[in-house]
Amino acid sequence: MRDFSYMQADSVGAAVASHAKGNDSAYISGGTTLLDLAKLEVMRPGHVVDVRKTGYDQVEQLDDGRLRIGTNVTNTDLAYHPIVKEQYTVLSDALLSGASTSIRNKATTGGNVMQRARCAYFRDTSAPCNKREPGSGCSAIGGHARSVFAVLGTSEHCVVAHPSDMCVAMAAIGGVVNVEGPNGKRDIDFLDFHLLPGDTPHLEHALEADEMITHVTLNAPVKGAKSHYLKLRDRASYQFALASSAIIVATDGDTVRDARIAMGGVGTKPWRAAAAEKSLIGKAATEDNFAKAADIAFADARPTDDNAFKIPLGKQAIVRGLQTVTA
Amino acid sequence: MSNDIIGAAKPRIDGPDKLSGRARYAADHYPANLTYAYGVFSNIAAGKITDIDVSKAKQQPGVIEIFHHGNFPKLHRSPSNFAQQNKVDEPRLPFEDNNVYYGGQFVAMVVADTFENARNAAYFVDVSYQESEPVTSLTQALKKGAPKQAKSSRHVRGDADSAFSSAPHQVDAIYTTPVETHNPMEMHATTAYWNDGDLTFYEASQGVVFAKNTIAAVFGINPARVDARAPYIGSGFGSKLWIWPNAVAATAASRELGRPVQLVVPRAQMFTTTGHRPATHQNIKLGADANGKLQAIVHDSVNSTSFVGHYVETCGSVTKSLYDCDNVRVTHATAQVNQGTPTSMRAPGAAPGLFALESAIDELAEKIGMDPLALRKANYTETDGSKGLPFSSIHLMECYERGAKAFGWDKRNPEVGSMKNGNEILGWGVAACNWEALKRDCNARVALRADGRAFVSCATQDIGTGTYTIVAQTAADVLGLPLDKIEVELGDSAYPSGPLSGGSWASASALPAIHAAAKKAADQLKGYAVEEGAVFADADPEKITLADGKLSMDGGDSVAFVDVLQQRKVAEAFGEAYTSGATGDEYSFRSFGAHFVEIAWDPGISRLRVNRVVSAIDCGQIINSKTASNQVEGAIAMGIGMALFEQTEYDHRSGMPVNNNYAEYLVPTHADYPEDVNVLLLDYPDYKFNDLGLRGIGEIGITGMAAAVANAVYHATGKRVRDLPIRIEDLMSA
Ligand SMILES: Cc1cc2nc3c(=O)[nH]c(=O)nc-3n(C[C@H](O)[C@H](O)[C@H](O)COP(=O)(O)OP(=O)(O)OC[C@H]3O[C@@H](n4cnc5c(N)ncnc54)[C@H](O)[C@@H]3O)c2cc1C
Ligand code: SF4
Questions:
Q1: How many domains, chain B?
Q2: A126 vs B43: CB contact, 8 Å cut-off?
Q3: Does the beta-carbon distance from A127 to B666 stay under 8 Å?
Q4: Taking CB atoms and an 8 Å cutoff, what residues of chain B touch A143?
Q5: Is residue B163 a part of any domain in this protein?
Q6: What is the pTM of this model?
Q7: How many Cβ atoms from other residues are within 10 Å of residue B357's Cβ?
Q8: Nearest by CB: A41 against B123, B605, B644
């Protein structure tokens, strides 16, 4: 770990201004990603701006029914917030399936949205990795690429999965990431926030230079819907998803009226399965139709040498998730 | 022995110190003027160092010295002799030359004024290498050529090959287990300082006497000038039996600099330079008649070892003894890979070996159409066929029967996939567990002091298993004192020489010596009490009993022992005792048991979990039912990990480990531990083994566990997984 200067900001303005002073600044909130990677020398910020005293630590339901979550709300507080527990079950479930209690107590909403890849080669500074060192190559391709690697949205430059559970639930719910920067405030559609690796896997998100996340604002809950997050992994806790599904479904009798499906552990970003959703609207809530939707979701899947099983596993996550909310 | 103390479920006497942080581990000692070392580790698995540029690193703040092969002092390899108590598994010293034999090998070490400065500077040490093609796995090594046979652990009786070929029922299968890493919570660490040629060092060690002698051999000095201490260690699972390069690096740096040095091995290098369980490749052949009677057992195994150590994983060590069979061949061989040197990990040999054997027994039962438990019973024996000696005490049949009853084995439907519970298919599996009972030489000292307390000292260790507590119980039993009046001093090579905490022999070796020393201390005290002018002058000391801190005459008059000492004007009454190791000339000493496991497989979401475990264990007298059950429970957890999760993964091109942290190296979490675990401790004292009848319980619980899980998985899914760990992709239908 290298020495860095540290500034605790008391407002978003001060944070952005301090961040803008250099070109190797980093915001820090819970620090569970940043400090970990700084110790490994994977992230080497010269200046660290602590945003935890900038406010943005409330969860509020807006008049239009949307839910505005301050960036500094911890994963634990968000998971147990009464509105989240009641109206956004999928989000509460997803948060509680992630990491461990102690990490969730520190981790924040903005930090979680911004968490970095869990690829072993990304974390090992002696291995080539396009995400860490653009143009150096991707060690995972042809290397060891099982648990935390994607089958959807990969490129020949990077194949790592987006690690977050929270973001998968948020992708299903839909919403915007509210940011503020040197040029003022703007909103970024949640589904546009994370970027596909393409040939620039080092570019992971849509933030402009020095922009800070202030909130995530989620769409109002789908009326009459049930939701569920199903995370599949080798062990029962404390492991990133091999495959997961965030499902929100509203039915009229046996017919699907509305369906939202997002997937984790299988995509290079929190993966919304729009075509699969569409295939279900107006259809009967049957295992057969669920299986067809799952096939659609994975139609373009391309595994690594080690993770072909994620295709059937991801489909199972969708089918069982759909069964659970329509049971 | 009075039963209110021996066998009682006493909580650990060191618990409060551990919970409150008062217990200090190897890196919790801060002698004056302390410096901090941080390693630079090879990021190639094979080759040579061509250059080490320390110029940038030297300019970093706080740097005192940077060691590497060019300037590290010339030291000596330990002879690595078990009898001389200086054994190591990796005899090569750190920084011996410019060769790189494995990834994560020490190639340089920065010493600085703070830990942070040392770590910072370490990143600036620029090492250039000439890489050569590494051997990155056992499989690859076996393709390169025949493995090297290890003669010492071979066993042959009868003619296994021809008995196998003529047997009506046969199993011939290959089982593999991966590299597993111990991953104790406390990382390896050394805090060392020299004073006028005398060395004191705190080491994360399961054997302070071995640590002392080995370091003395490395420096070529009299062991009497070395004091190795490990009053607390954050477990070891075998990785801390012998010292590793960190101990040599830190003690040498301290001598060179004339200042104390502390070195902690980072978690990532706990996967490379402090040992691991090697990968194994095992061929089992079983031949049996129609009744399941075994006619031939062949167990040929190979394990990976390093290029700088020759470690043999004795997978067949149980195979040669467990079943009644006249034709047995057990062989071991090794093949070199570019990984750090392997070492003993909880139940070395037996853990991977019984995975193979007990899986094969299950396969045989399936072939014959026999209940797998009945097959085991059909081959039960009370004689160790490898030695031609009776077992000193065996209640394996009772383990099978009591375990089966508690589990409900008679309700098992043998048909694969037939037992359902909602979305889940249940699988029931059984396996035997087994471990050799060993006992080593031990010295101990027990003193009753004038302040009313007793002191017990022995240079063995409590590695988190409860040794402090059972030592206190043993002394309390003889001395008639409550536990809180007994001070136990362990983990210092200056104390009377005691056993390694390994091989499940620490308790069986140390407690008899402590018992004997306590008796001698009590006798001296009684002697004082009957001296001329003393309270019980001229009485028969045999008639004096000790209880509640008092001596009583024939149940009548009593006097506090403190008063006896005060009258005699001495500080203490003490006894020193030596007890010798077990010879094994007349009996074969082993512990026995059986695991019964229920797994649940949800094919709709490919979820595999262990639901329920019953383990019946026959390991002699139980000294403390709480710490003893804990050992088996912990071993069950570790066995579940071995079955389903544990595997150090290497990049097959570079040979570097890729899951070298607690997040990606999977071990069971609390959520993976079944709610329903029932440990049955049979508690039959084995007085042929030692006076206290105990055998040790640290390792047996992990043996057989992976096989019981694999057998249960087969029962549920019909998939026979012979390569650990069992992964969900092995079970998902194509
Ligand atoms: C061992 C381990 C296991 C884990 N397992 C899981 C898991 O199973 N599922 C899962 O979803 N997650 C898991 N995580 C990841 C965890 O959820 C993230 O580390 C956490 O959410 C990050 O939040 P933080 O507040 O600590 O972020 P920090 O570490 O403070 O920051 C993370 C990143 O976000 C940036 N950042 C922080 N705040 C802002 C802001 N307001 N605006 C702009 N940028 C900002 C930082 O510069 C940094 O780049 C695990 C982490 C660990 C260490
Ligand atoms: S998968 Fe992505 S993060 Fe991993 S090595 Fe390749 S480029 Fe780097």
A1: 3
A2: yes
A3: no
A4: 651-653, 658
A5: no
A6: 0.97
A7: 29
A8: B123
B422 and B550 both lie in a single domain: no
How far apart are the CA of A33 and the centre of ligand 1, in A? Answer: 4
What do you get for the CA distance between the two ends of chain B, in Å?
61
Do both B471 and B572 map to the same domain? yes
Chains A, B: CB contacts within 8 A come to 82
Q: Using an 8 Å Cβ cutoff, are B729 and B608 in contact?
A: no
User: Residue A1: its pLDDT value, please?
Assistant: 76
Query: Which positions 120-179 of A are in contact with B (Cβ < 8 Å)?
Result: 120-121, 124, 126-127, 139, 142-144, 147-148
CB A271 within 8 Å of CB A151: no
Domain-embedded: residue B152: no
From the CA of A35, how far away is ligand 1's center (Å)?
A: 10
Which stretch of DSSP H or E encloses residue B383?
Answer: strand B383-384
Range of the domain at B49: 31-133+185-234+240-271
CATH (domain of B404): 3.30.365.10
3-state secondary structure of B170: strand
Interface with chain A: mutation pick from B40, B117, B602, B605, highest number of A CBs within 10 Å = B605
In a domain, B257, yes or no: yes
Query: Is A144 within 8 Å of B649 when comparing Cβ atoms?
Result: yes
Q: Within its chain, how far is the Cα of A90 from the centroid?
A: 13
How far does residue A164's CA lie from ligand 1's centre (Å)? 9
- Collect all residues of chain A within an 8 Å Cβ-Cβ radius of residue B137: none
CA triple B411-B416-B419, angle to 5 deg: 45
- The verdict on residue B146 lying in a domain is no
* 3 state DSSP class of B525: helix
Give the pLDDT confidence of A3-41 residue by residue, as tens digits: 899 999 999 999 999 999 999 999 999 999 999 999 999
Nearest to A309 among B605, B644, B728 (CB): B728
Q: What is the DSSP letter of A208?
A: P
Can you tell me the ipTM of this complex? 0.97
Residue A23 tokens read as 């070109």
C-alpha span between A269 and A227 (Å, rounded)? 21
Neighbour-count burial for B565-579, b at 16+ CB within 10 Å, e otherwise? beebeeebbbbbbeb
Is the pLDDT at B1 greater than 50? The verdict is no
Q: Are B486 and B453 in contact (CB under 8 A)?
A: yes
**Which residue among A28, A44, A113, A234 is best mutated to probe the pocket of ligand 1, counting the most ligand atoms within 8 A of its Cβ?**
A28
Q: A107 CB under 6 A from ligand 1?
A: yes
- Residue B11, number of CB atoms within 10 A of its CB: 13
Structure tokens that stand for B105 in this block? 């090998």
| DSSP helix, strand, coil percent of chain A (3-state; round to 5) | 30, 25, 45
If you compute the radius of gyration of chain B from its CA atoms, what whole number of angstroms results? 27
Q: Report pLDDT for B3.
A: 54
pLDDT digits (tens, 9 = 90+) for A187-242: 999 999 999 999 999 999 999 999 999 999 999 999 999 999 999 999 999 999 99
Q: Strands (DSSP E) along B565-709, which ranges? A: 572-579, 590-602, 607-618, 676-681
Choose among A144, A236, A238: nearest Cβ to B609.
A236
Which numbered ligand comes closest to the C-alpha of B669?
Answer: 1
For residue A45 and ligand 1, the question of a CB distance below 6 A is answered with no
Q: How many CA atoms lie within 13 A of A187 on its CB side?
A: 10
Give per-residue pLDDT as tens, A48-75.
Answer: 999 999 999 999 999 999 999 999 999 9
Token readout for B269 is 């290098």
Contacts of B143 (CB under 8 A, 6+ apart): none
Sheet holding A255-264, edge to edge: A226-232, A243-252, A255-264, A271-272
Ligand (nearest to CA of A32): 1
| Structural domains in chain A, sorted by start | 5-53 (3.30.43.10), 54-114+164-218 (3.30.465.10), 226-326 (3.30.390.50)
My answer on whether B492 and B574 are in the same domain is yes
